[in-house]
Amino acid sequence: MIEVVMPEMGESVAEGTVTRWLVQVGDSVDKDQPIVEISTDKVDAEIPSPAAGTLQEIRAQEGAVVQVDEVLALIATDGERPAVSAATVPAGGPRKARASVEAGGAGTDRGGDRGDRGDRSAPSAGAEAHGTDSGEAAGAVESVAREQAGAEPGQGAAARGEASRPLVTPIARKIAAAEGIDPARIQGSGAQGRVTKEDVLRAVEARRQTPAESARKERPAPALRTPAEPGAPRPAEGEHVVRPFVEGERVEIEPMSRMRKLTARHMVHSQATSVHVTTVFHVDMTRVVDTRNRVKAAFEREHGTRLTYMPFIFRALAIALRAHPKFNASIDGETIVYKRSVNLGMAVALDWGLIVPVIHDADQASLVGLAKKANDLAERARAKRLKPDEIQRGTFTVTNPGVFGSLFGTPIINQPQVAILCVGAIEKRPIVVTGADGHDSIAIRHMAYFALTYDHRLIDGADAEVFMRDVKTTLETESWSELGR
Predict the structure, then answer these.
(1) Is 456 a catalytic residue?
(2) Are residues 101 and 174 located together in one domain of the fold?
(3) Which position among 30, 290, 332, 460 bears the catalytic label?
(4) Is 470 a catalytic residue?
(5) What is the pLDDT of residues 359-397, one digit of tens each?
(6) Is the pTM of this model over 0.85?
(7) Under DSSP, is residue 268 helix (H, G, I), strand (E, B) or coil?
(8) Marked catalytic residue, from 276, 456, 463, 470
(9) Are 43 and 352 in contact (CB under 8 A)?
(10) Which of 221, 281, 381, 464 has the CA that lies 20 to 30 A from 432?
């Protein structure tokens, strides 16, 4: 019997919603055939079948919220009879707990279980860190495994105390920590009494409605924290709070989408984490524009994809990131983590939010390869067809509001990265140029503003200026000979 489990859909994604089953119980499925659609805060994706066979059982119905590693369905391979029933294997249980139950054991080896997850506890270099990481997701899986396995008599007070800790989802734990709330004091409404994000938010709201003195007693000393309500600044003590609307005012109210909430929380977290500084360069894109105009028609015929300006920019960035490893790094406490792979995140605007698919190993790709990969990722992002791995492990992000006419912006760093580049509109402008004879003249050039926002905790101003000087030089002087003449 093969289990279909909820995969990790990004480092900061701990759960997803089953939106649609593409097959029904009794249907035959092929290996890698899409069988269910899952919607998360970051991406909507189709989950493929891990093996060929017959869909034996659906354990998560449409509309159900499932945690990473939960069982979605069972697939019987050809000629196989069901090995276990739903009563034998707890629905939604993590893989460690399931393995123990199916083997007929009395419980998991807790010490060994934690050891197996040791490598997952460190935050990975994901494209986005929206409040949780893969280590926290692993912690949630381990907690469920402990509860399902149960504490055996004679295990000792330490083991019983560990098993008695409340089950808390990673997002709920993060919000509770930011608000100074003990999850053990919250009645969980999730499976097996798990404390969910909604439970914590209700506790936060209830506390806000109590007298100020009571709130002061419960809350620890003020510190930089992420507000529980995404994007909403916390009023100062005694400050009059102005509601966004008054009684009788004509308004339309709708709840934030999950993606919007997560984006808002991520932005607030990034602002509170990194010391944001922005430098702006004026880049002459004339050589790039002329090259593209000369070869774009032949390029599309030969390679089957459009040639935009972004592959040129990606190529210049990849070269600079190799030469300046600080910009391809992350800060972990008081240590610096230098990434060996150059993974460029490219922000894609969607009708329902923003997503950042990642071009992995961008420094190893040619201009043609970058063009194909960028177009493919953007198209599948808009069609909700991205794979989980394609929004993870970004090391540097590029955003391009210039396509909407913006001259430049000052973007917020995509945690846990340390820099982000904003590309403005490429426009014809009159520029003073110096000829070979040393005389100045006015010329019409294709110009764009490039704004680099960087984390001043790691990157100094001089570092940023040299990095951007190198990007500018590549774009202004590179012959792009690989595209032919």
Answers:
(1) yes
(2) no
(3) 460
(4) no
(5) 999 999 999 999 999 999 999 998 888 888 899 999 999
(6) no
(7) helix
(8) 456
(9) no
(10) 464
